[in-house]
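re: ur question from the group chat, yeah i did fold both. here u go
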Amino acid sequence: MPEQMMTPRPTLEGVAARAGVSRATVSRVVNGGSGVRQPLIDKVRKAVEELGYVPNQAARSLVTQRTGAVAVIIAEPEFRVFSDPFFERHVRGISRELSTNDLQLVLLWVEGESDHERIARYLSGGHVDGALAFSLHSDDRLAQLIAHSRVPCVFGGRPAASYPPGTPYVDCDNRGGARAAVSHLFSAGRSTIAHIAGPSDQTSAVDRAAGYHDVLVDADPDLFQRGDFTEESGARAMAALLDRRPGLDAVFAANDLMARGALRMILERGLRVPDDVAVVGFDDVGDIASGSVPALTTVRQDIEGMGRLMVRRLMRRLDHPEQTGADSVITPTVLVQRQSS
């Protein structure tokens, strides 16, 4: 049987010949250069499509001084990343926007402080054009190490005071969303409203707790219990609250996983939701809220959209490195009322 003939790989020269332009013009179009008139751009793109030309990434990097890759740093251990659908939704938005910009995603997560230096070395090594980091904790050094790497970065979530000044970020209106949740419970006639807060070293939890106290300025400290954003911590917190204040009639949890744990504990104690205790969460991700029984009232944030916005802010920094200052955005939240309140 004769050997199968290999079709030669299309070259810049071949594209130039097909389009009737110079090799330099093709190179500028393919590599995103300027100074080419639109009719010629259209001819080159048509030739690229007809020939199936794929740019050589190594050669392209020499021209553009870019790697075509972006690091996505999740400052949580692996089990948290895969157990909380928030992260899946966030990464999905990031991945789709990176694909739109023909960029590769390099996923890095942090199991502990020992990973900080490794990630800093990777960023400083010129492997990626930029970084996106979220779920950072206020007491870790990762934000400072990222800044020292001099790789352009956009953070997911409001920066803590320990972050480098002027850090650009994308976040939702955590405090306003929490106010809406607690105001909803108060307006429904609930008089003893508890709060299951997230970790104190994450600004989203701090802001949501602040929103709770905006409405209930003189809230009883016994109605405040902290969790860690996991479902089991929500159940434990709810048990502690019911032990201290068995007459409470509502609870606002700082995320849907903790709200689902709280709901489960309320039902295990023989109480009815919402008749005896109303429950409100925060996030509105996946089937956690809509699939709970009863379905969970919650504060919706556009998690996937925030991931896309992070990429757009990073692209702006890459395309205009001369611009300085924070390019940050706060996205709105909306209360979604279901059967739990």
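okk and heres the other one u asked abt
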Amino acid sequence: MSTASQQPASKPLAAPSPPGRTAEKEQITAAVAATLVLAYGLHPADITRIPEGTATDNYLVVDQAGRRHFAKVYRTRDHLDLERASIELSEYCADGGVATARATRTREHELIETNGRLPMSLWSYAPHTASAEGGLTGARWAAVGTAMGRLHARLATHPAAAPTLEPGAAVCDVVASRDRFERLIREYQQRPTLGEFEAWALQAAGERQAILGDVERALDSLPQLTVQVLHGDMAGPNVLFKNDEVSAIVDFGPPTPGYLAWEIARLGCDPKSVLDNSAESWLTGYTDLTLAYRDANPKASSDDLVSSLRVGCAAMLCSAFPLSVPVERPHILDAATEAYGRVRHEAALMLLDRLPVMEEALRDALR
């Protein structure tokens, strides 16, 4: 999925594109323009390519009246049913008052245009100044808690699945994680030479493997936790701010049940938020998030809120990403991925070390 309404990123000057590539880009832009006219009745004055998503090429479109739109062009038609279900979930939340981008329907009232050369969805452009990708600070902690609380309160009513209580220990599969780390360690050990990040990843994988017993015990002590339909990709880039208020939550997945505590932790325990602050100030921010969340979603269980710390810590420690990237997806390895791997590992170890004290402080604040 891609980030709906992401602002164009500034890029360093680069050499001009080869003539063949330039011609191809012009043809694609022309095809986007034609689809906008024929399918949406929208006449573009400007079309600008912006950072792509996982499965889409994204464009900022300015129409002749000066209004801005966000166009997502799908690279294949293989998963359009899932994409359509994701848009429907976003629309369901918007109908319930959740701050999110709205999809623009085609002239045939479809959420995705599929008749032309380019399968495409078109969105309102949510104004924003930043995303939560760089971590949370100050008033943004409470703003995210309020936005997530409203989101989860709305999703609890989704017809795909009613909220249920499930064993908290099942949030992570420690046995599968142990096997994966063992395979990863063997792969690295069999290589004749290792680069700097590969050597670090081998060491980190060994550290993870050694503490999985602690993780398993931490999970075994969890109570039953709420499982319900979730956003599906509650990551920093998908939460957009205008100043210190959340202007939109974007890029939903299809309606799939999951642990509520994990989606809270996915944002609140973001490694940059954890490490860019002292442990005390980070916990203060996390507490602000959970208190605002409970105000916006009064039916939320205190067990889900307090357990989110343990769930977030365990999920990071059980995950092999991005330690596994040099082995499984070397083509996406870059400096940013390497830096994220180091930060995520350090943040997870810090959380595990301080978990009992932090949970007790959060429990006291929520009483």
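fwiw on the second one: Confidence is low (pLDDT under 50) at residues 1-15. The chain is about 50% helix and 15% strand. idk if thats what u expected
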